[in-house]
Design a protein that fits this description.
By secondary structure, the chain is mostly beta strands. The protein contains 1 helix and 7 strands, in the order βββαββββ.
Length: 102
């Protein structure tokens, strides 16, 4: 994200709704990251907490970031590929795939 001119702030040992706060052009992404060597899992209440947090902050968006093994079926134009993994960002609650470009 930093290479795309985002200011990125990490929540060390995050147990809250957002693992990363990323800011670019007055847009704030509250990002929850889920990763797995299989299929990443997220619970409904985690999504709800992230959306609720975003509703309290002007110009912020709840984003879910999934890091998963790279498969032909899950790679698309919005995927960031690295090694054997892919990284995707989704705007909640609609699960719309988003890119780092604003």
């Amino acid at each position: 994200m930093k290479s795309k001119e985002w200011n990125v702030y990490f929540s060390k040992g995050s147990k809250g709704p957002s693992d990363i706060i990323a800011i670019k052009n007055d847009v704030i992404w509250l990002i929850q990251i889920k990763s797995s060597t299989r299929i990443p899992k997220i619970r409904g209440y985690e999504i709800h907490k992230l959306i609720k947090m975003s509703n309290k902050i002007n110009n912020s968006f709840p984003i879910l970031s999934l890091i998963s093994p790279k498969l032909d079926c899950n790679a698309d134009a919005n995927s960031i590929l690295f090694g054997n993994y892919s990284l995707n960002f989704y705007l909640l609650p609609d699960w719309k795939c988003v890119t780092l470009e604003l």
